[in-house]
Amino acid sequence: MDKSEKVASYFDEEHRFKDSIAVLRNLVLKTGLDETYKWNFPTYTLNNKNVLSICKFKNHFGVWFFNGVFLKDEKKVLQNAQEGKTQGMRHWKFTSIDDINEMIVLAYMQEAVENQKKGLTITPKKTTKKSFVIPPMLLENINSDTKFKSAFDGLSPSKQKEYCEYITEAKQEKTKIARLHKIVPMIKEGIGLHDKYRNC
Q: Per UniProt, what is one Pfam family of this protein (predicted)?
């Protein structure tokens, strides 16, 4: 399935917010952004630079603005999903189609496009690579499996740290083992622990 088919499937899927995200999509398409598919969400780009995405979840849907920190946000509707962690991205959550004021939402989208044209972007801060301790059971996997080691080393330092803390914070040994079994395939796929829920 190519990206255009994935986008179509995303919007065609029966979901409580199917009509709502269709409204958001119609608004985005008025901005002239290119429509693609990244991180399991329809994503809209300008010169291959991410500007915004449309997302739907069980209890809400919304728009991610990748460099939303630069938006004026006169209506005070934008949220930082992870204070202290998320630098540039901001999220506008909705719980009903009635929450969508099309004129205002389109204005935010157009401002995001203009900011991208101006080159307003956040450069992620670099993290010290070894500012955490790798728990023994995870280290054992790393040392015994070269492919796994390569996958772990390929993660950003912040994602490595999240995985290490995820195991370390478990109080019981059986919980640590269960968590290890959960994260091994995720690490092999290059997925961060919180990627699915990040910023939404």
A: OmdA
